[in-house]
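To close the chapter, one final illustration. This time we ask the reader to focus less on the individual chains and more on the assembly as a whole: which components sit near each other, and how the overall shape emerges from the parts.
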Amino acid sequence: MTPKSIAMQTRRQLLRDFLTWLKENLFSPWYNALITIVSAAVIYVALKGILHWVFYGAKWGVVTTNLRLFAVGPYPTDQLWRVWLALGLALVLGGLSWGAWGGRSLVALILVIPFLVVFWLAPITPAAKRNWTVVLFLFVLSSAVAEFVRPLRKPLQKILPFAWLVAFFVTLVLLHGFKGSQRLPLVETGLWGGLLLTILLAVVAIVLSFPIGVLLALGRRSSLPIVKLFSIFYIELIRGVPLVTVLFMAQIMLPLFLPPNLRIDKVLRAMAGMTLFAAAYLAENVRGGLQAIPKGQYEAAQALGLNYYQTMRYIILPQALRAVIPAIVGQFISLFKDTSLVAIVGLLDLLSIALSVIAQPQWIGLQREVFAFIGVIYWIFCYAMSYASRRLEVKLGVGVR
Amino acid sequence: MRGEEKGTAKGLQVHDTGEDIIILEDVHKWFGDFEALRGINMRVKRQEVVVIIGPSGSGKSTLVRCINRLEQHDQGRIIVDGIELSHDIRNIEAIRREVGMVFQQFNLFPHMTVLDNITLAPRLVRRWPRAKAEQVAMELLERVGIADQAHKYPGQLSGGQQQRVAIARALAMQPKIMLFDEPTSALDPEMIKEVLDVMIELARSGMTMIVVTHEMGFAREVADRVVFMDAGKIVEEAPPEELFAHPKDPRTKEFLAHIL
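The assembled structure is written out below.
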């Protein structure tokens, strides 16, 4: 047989397999065929309506005109380079992480293309087009570096977690600046807004609540009565109160308790509120993981002479945290969405920017476009977190059977 | 009390207990209302192999677990390698460094490779550099016959192999005493021998061992002394050939009749 006829044959085989699959899964017995046809009709009608609206009905001008507002809120235009720099830093680290943990840079490239197309078609400034192209290119490039320079992988996997942590603090300093500085003039947190603020709130709350939550979980199981009582009291108090209440407390009550000359700014207070709130829930998730660890693991560690810290650090927490990754990531995802509640206490996050845009007279009646747009943005971030968590589970699942 | 307080090396009170490495004096232990140990007196010499037998619930495991403080005794004294077990965490940690333990359920760390399981404690507690810890670990794995499994995870090994890793892990701390708490009870019959062979070799190499087991063949072969316990007390103790052939106490006779 010639290679060509083999190819023909496999193609025919594929077609036959496909038809069998259709028949087995969609068209037998007869009532399944009926259900298939009816659902196909429903999907067609719904999708047709949505797609028609997306491509013909919707007036996307409200989104593209206000894109900068959605992205950074009232952050001063002449200082925007700082946001671009922070974004570039995050995307370089993101690309390196992608490649270092087995992601293909080709996939990264394919992921980036639709964004590039959107940004090039959107009526944004040439400078913004150029900057987006550069940062997205940096993402693909750094993922390729991590993928193809093999000897870099192991050290990268070790360094990257710390690099992320350092980048997190560098970003905060970079965006905030210093009072009286020429190069990095102060940008008050009151001017932080849009997606930038949403991401910062979520990242700060996630990064800071994690260690606090783990300590609270350990505290709740501690044999020291004061530590234990405090942990239980704190966790149950916070869990008994809605997040909105905690945010209001942080905004309105906190200044009453502090001396009048000590004024903590609004964004910082919201960050503190969200962190303290998330920590209580995280503590309960981690406690669930701790309870799943058999007593024999503690005993084996003790019998080897490990002290409490070593037992927790090397034996118990690695197993407990691995067991609760899905729960923790689920919590982080809802935390990301919960940042929209800060709109109530007057911060300019993505949702409140959206609300203020549709309140303007020239955009009246365009709520659907705006809400669809920020909905997609929330979805992209939440799905990315969910995807990362699945990758992490697979990666850490090695050897546990 | 024979031992006199000798000195305070590293702030620890050290007793000179002569050739006895483990001394238990009138040890009592309660679990709530249940008295698990009712006045245990026992001495173990250096390099001695003691096998503890007895019906379930007789306090064998509790006794062994008190020696490295996995259980806390409520009354009496326990002195291990010259150090008395007290509430002082330094004493407890000092004793645990010198006492290795092997559990019925292996209790290997499932998230680490075999090699990491073995090198963890020497590196953290003894502060050995990685190279030294790994070299010692590989020698021990060679000794228990599974050097080729060093980079697997515990879940990928058979029960017998896991228990041999557990023995190697305890030996890596270079303990002076090894405690075995029913090491073969959770194993399939065909794997018991491979673990017992390792223990026999260890006993012959001069390790001080206390072994809770139902393997009478093991007791016959290497035990210097067999201790029979019932209801929280030591009923009878003697060299194996004597205890198995001429048990004195009726309870010992009855137990041996069941098991032999």
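Confidence is low (pLDDT under 50) at residues 1-9 of chain B. Chain B touches chain A at residues 68-70, 93, 96-97, 99-101, 103, 105, 107-111, 113, 120-121, 124-125, 152-156, 169-170, 173 (CB under 8 Å). With these observations in hand, you are ready for the problems at the end of the chapter.
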